[in-house]
Amino acid sequence: MAKLKSKWICQxxxxxxxxxxxxxxxxxxxxxxxxxxxxxxxxxKNNERALIRSSIQGGVNSFDSPxxxxxxxxxxxxxxxxxxxxxxxxLGGGIVPGSVILLAGEPGIGKSTLLLQVAKSLETKHExxxxxxxxxxxxxxxxxxxxxxxxxxxxxxxxxxxxTICEHINTKKPNLVIVDSIQTIYHPDITSTPGSISQVRxxxxxxxxxxxxxxxxVIIVGHINKEGVIAGPKVLxxxxxxxxxxxxxxxxxxxxxxxxxxxxxxxxxIAIFSMEGAGLNExxxxxxxxxxxxxxKVSSEQELxxxxxxxxxxxxNQVLFLEVxxxxxxxxxxxxxxxxNGWDYSRLLQIIAVLEKKVGLTLATRDVYIxxxxxxxxxxxxxxxxxxxxxxxxxxxxxxxxxxxxxxEVGLTGEIRQVSESEKIIKEATKLGFRQVIAPKTRxxxxxxxxxxxxxxxxxxxxEFIKExxxxxxxxxxxxxxxxxxxxxxxxxNQS
Length: 496
Ligand code: TYD
Ligand code: MG
Hints:
Largest sheet: 9 strands, mixed
Radius of gyration: 27 Å
Shape: globular
Strand content: 15-25%
Number of domains: 3
Strand order of the largest sheet: 6-5-7-8-4-9-10-11-12
Helix content: 25-40%
Bound molecules: thymidine-5'-diphosphate, magnesium ion
CATH class of the largest domain: Alpha Beta
Distance between the termini: 76 Å
CATH topology of the largest domain: Rossmann fold
C-alpha cells in the first residue's frame, strides 16, 4: 500500500522542506513554498518500471570503474537532420540519438507549429510519436493538414499519464518523441497538479530515463512564464541536454530560436523564422528584416526621427540590424522613470550615468524610455553607443542620418570598447546600403582587404570616447545642450 508523504516545495528552485517557510532558504524567493503530497511508490511498481527499462536494448555505455579517457570509444553520433537547416545549425548539426531537448517559449509563440514542421520533414523516413497532452487529436490533425502533413509515420498520442506515455514509447520505439507539453502531463504517484515543480521534475525524469535507455531522442515543450523563466523549472534545464529558447513578439511575425545550453554543440547559432499563414518560414539572412520600412530612408539619404538610431550585432551566422528608439521627457516624478523594452535595464542606467558624467547631458530630472523595435531582447553591448545617441538626439531634438549604423560598447569611463565581429557587421552594413558607421577605435580588423573594400563604400568613423561620436555626428550639439540646460532647473553635472 502506498504511503502518503507531504512536503513543502519551492516552486522557483525545487528546494524541499518538511514544513512551510515564508522564504525559501535556498533561492531566497518569498511565498514560493507550496505543499505537495507525494505517494511513496511501492517497490513492486518500481521493479516493474525497472524491468521495462532493462528490457530495452541499446542503452548508453557505462563503466563499473573509472576508465582512461583515451580508451573510451568515441561514439560517432548519427545525428537526425530535422530538415529545417537553421534549426539543425542551432542544434549543432541535428538531433543526437538519445538526447533530450527542451523547447521553451511563451504560450502561442509557435512551439507546436515548429515541432509539427520538424515532424513533417522527418516522417518521410522516420517514425515520430507526438504526445499532444494539450490539444485534442482533431485539433492537431486540423493544424497538421494546414501545414501540409501527410501523417503516415506521425503518431499522435493524447495521453497525459507519464507512465502510460512511457509504455507507449517502449512499445512503439519511434525515431523521435515530441512531448507537448511537460506542464500538462502528470505522474500518478504525485498528487500535486500538473505543471507543479514535483510533477515537472518527476515526469521529465521518467521520459528522460526511457529515452536514454532506448536511445530515442525526445523534444520536450516547456512553457515559460511572463518573467521569461521556464515555468516550474530551472530543474528542467539541468536535466536535459539541450535547451532551446523560442522568442519574439507574438503580435509580429518574427521568431528567434537560440540554444541557451547545448551538450553537443555551441550556443552561438540562432535561427530566425517568420510566422506565416502556412507555418514558420526560415529566414536565412535576416540582416535588415527588422528595419523593413526604414530601408527606403537609407537609400534616399533621409534623416531618422530624433531619438532614433540603428544598432547592430552579430550572432552565429547572422548579422542583425535593429532600430532603437528613445524618448526623453521632463519628469513629473521625484524619481524619474527609466523604462527599457527589449534592452537590459541596468545597461540603460549605466549609459544614462555615462551620458551625465562624461557628456554632460542633464538627465537626472528627465524620464527616459528605450525601445528596441521588433520585439526582440537585444542583450548585446554593441548597441550601447546607439542607445546613447538615441537618448541624446531625443533630448537635443536632433536627428541622425538614416544611413548610419552605430556599433560599440560604452565603458564606464566613456570609452568606446570593441565588440565581437565588428568587421562582419561593417561588411553586412555595406551590402545593405548603409554609408556610414561609427565603430570603436580599438576594433580588431579581420584583414586588410576587408578594410579597404569597406572603406570604398562606407565611411568608417573610429571613435575612442563617447564625446568624439557626438562631435562627429551631431554638429553643434554643445549649443543645443546649453539650451536644454536653460530649460531645466536641475543642477548641471560636472563635465569631465
Ligand atoms: P502554436 O504553435 O500553437 O504556439 P505554442 O505551441 O508555442 O503555444 O502557434 C501559435 C500561433 O501561431 C497561433 O496563434 C497562430 C499562429 N499560426 C500561424 O500564424 N500560422 C500557422 O500556420 C500556424 C499553425 C499557427
Ligand atoms: Mg502548443
